[in-house]
UniProtKB/TrEMBL annotation:
Catalysed reactions, semicolon-separated: (2E)-decenoyl-CoA + NADPH + H(+) = decanoyl-CoA + NADP(+); a (2E)-enoyl-CoA + NADPH + H(+) = a 2,3-saturated acyl-CoA + NADP(+); (2E)-hexenoyl-CoA + NADPH + H(+) = hexanoyl-CoA + NADP(+); (2E)-tetradecenoyl-CoA + NADPH + H(+) = tetradecanoyl-CoA + NADP(+)
Organism expressing this protein natively: Tropicimonas isoalkanivorans
GO MF annotation list: trans-2-enoyl-CoA reductase (NADPH) activity
Localization in the cell: Peroxisome
Ion transport recorded as keyword: no
Role of this protein: Participates in chain elongation of fatty acids. Catalyzes the reduction of trans-2-enoyl-CoAs of varying chain lengths from 6:1 to 16:1, having maximum activity with 10:1 CoA. Has no 2,4-dienoyl-CoA reductase activity.
Assembly mode: Interacts with PEX5, probably required to target it into peroxisomes.
Official protein name in the record: Peroxisomal trans-2-enoyl-CoA reductase
Organism placement in taxonomy: Bacteria, Pseudomonadati, Pseudomonadota, Alphaproteobacteria, Rhodobacterales
Amino acid sequence: MTDIRTERMEKRLWGLSVPDLAAHPTVYAPDLLKGQRLLISGGGSGMGRATAVLAVRLGAEVMICGRDGEKLDRAAEEIERATGARILTRAMTIRDPEQVSAVMDDAFDELGGLDALVNSAGGQFPIEAIDLTPKGWNAVVDTNLNGTWHMMQAAARRWRDAGVPGSIVNIVATIDRGIPHSAHTAAARAGVVYLSKSVAVEWAPLGIRVNALAPGTIETEGLNNYPPAMLSRLGQGNPMRRMGDTWDIAEGVVYLTASSGKFVTGELLQINGGMHLWGTNWPLGVPESFRGTGG
Ligand SMILES: CCCCCCC/C=C/C(=O)SCCNC(=O)CCNC(=O)[C@H](O)C(C)(C)COP(=O)(O)OP(=O)(O)OC[C@H]1O[C@@H](n2cnc3c(N)ncnc32)[C@H](O)[C@@H]1OP(=O)(O)O
Ligand SMILES: NC(=O)C1=CN([C@@H]2O[C@H](COP(=O)(O)OP(=O)(O)OC[C@H]3O[C@@H](n4cnc5c(N)ncnc54)[C@H](OP(=O)(O)O)[C@@H]3O)[C@@H](O)[C@H]2O)C=CC1
């Protein structure tokens, strides 16, 4: 790990700032998303915010939503200061279907329609599965599976009713080899992946594409929810032996939503340094029984 990375980790300065994102080189043409309208859940921070910055830089109109209104407004102000673009914000929880319906109505009304929904809202806590309480299990499944589903269905119904196409990108997690110490989130994310594949088929006749994106360990302020010792281990948990950044994810989302992805649906795009193939990923540390086994 470089000195700068160590310093940032110690100060808990995770991830690219909005000015970093506004200046970051991109592979995309400046007006790739001109005229496109995006709703991004979890857009007040991390991967959602990076996607919002890239989208406005490429000419899109954007609304971001999440639970914390102040965080959303701060992100919007920073984005306007760094890029000149004004974005809309809505405080809500994706766990409440009525709040989801309201934010979706606002997005369609205030953006004048919607072309893409990016579901980046989510989270969990590390725990041995055997110790999970019903409340803890339900909180994680309700957020990551049910909440994502409410958003997907609400957008799809409006696209169907208006007779217009749409695109959904669901940000999940790397689940191919399970996520020990996070079985609740592995179950919820696996649910989202196969939900996405299922409705990608059902909704293809409606012109709605549905894809999922599996990040590996990505430097975002969301990592502040976890102990530093855990994060230094997780950063080593892929064959590239480092974390990714939010630009990696934002460019992946744009690939899927823009015309570059017009023949892609039901896909799971892995942006994780190969984490689905190799790595030791025990958030709470390798248990005694697996030490020295390569587990
Ligand atoms: C675990 C790591 C897997 C590998 C990936 C590592 C890299 C991943 C990074 C990210 O995902 S970055 C994004 C990070 N952001 C978050 O994770 C968000 C943090 N948490 C939340 O949003 C929410 O707390 C929640 C996890 C969705 C829970 O929602 P809710 O607000 O309804 O729940 P709480 O009231 O907080 O708790 C309900 C219930 O859940 C149990 N519980 C919650 N936190 C913990 C904890 N840290 N340890 C153990 N158990 C926990 C507990 O039973 C709670 O009930 P009470 O005890 O409070 O009655
Ligand atoms: N960073 C990483 O290494 C990895 C992250 N992920 C997942 O990727 C996604 C993006 O994470 P990342 O950007 O890193 O983390 P962040 O914590 O920065 O982003 C998650 C966002 O979700 C929002 N959110 C959480 N719960 C709800 C809810 N009930 N309703 C509405 N919004 C909600 C949060 O905002 P607010 O608090 O305002 O509601 C927050 O802005 C998450 O699903 C995360 O779990 C998966 C694998 C690895």
